[in-house]
Amino acid sequence: NAGVTQTPKFQVLKTGQSMTLQCAQDMNHEYMSWYRQDPGMGLRLIHYSVGAGITDQGEVPNGYNVSRSTTEDFPLRLLSAAPSQTSVYFCASSLAGAINEQFFGPGTRLTVL
Amino acid sequence: AQSVAQPEDQVNVAEGNPLTVKCTYSVSGNPYLFWYVQYPNRGLQFLLKYITGDNLVKGSYGFEAEFNKSQTSFHLKKPSALVSDSALYFCAVREAANDYKLSFGAGTTVTVRA
Fold first, then answer.
1. Residues 6 or more apart from A95 whose CB is under 8 A from it?
2. CB contact under 8 A, B9 and A40
3. Fewer Cβ in 10 A, N or C end of chain A?
């Protein structure tokens, strides 16, 4: 199993550009989520999905969109990039249920100029 | 609302000495608690979790954690630290009734010197 994969690993955008961060998992996990990691702030939940066709907002959803058309894929779209979105983005997946731990991808480091 | 506090930004220990990384939490119901480790330029890796039962939980790489309900704490411990334990450690909490949203602490950087 590849686990959770993310592409790209690095990305530089100009303010106002849009892009999609890709996330895929091959573990047949129901739950998937996107976090951003900023120094001294831990990980903050952006959006999450409890299954195909179902998404919901997390702690910091503004400026981001998601969709979940398949169990495997959970892309994160930046609609109009801003310097405040410079961060490291992690995708995670888990089996359904609050007792289950999450599996994380390797991350995407995004810089918005 | 659920939250996690990791009161120490950094912990420095000598190899072979005990390692403790502190975590306190706040939830309105029963907590599910997790510890993750992040090595440089990598994603987070799961170490251990407390769901219910025995307050002492054993996990990967020789780590353990003790759940203390009265002190709302879930400190991570290792009896004898290794240089390879140097990493960023995160505590996370999920309120049992919440079902999905996981709240992370700010993280503690552990440095183990040879």
1. A29, A30, A31
2. yes
3. N
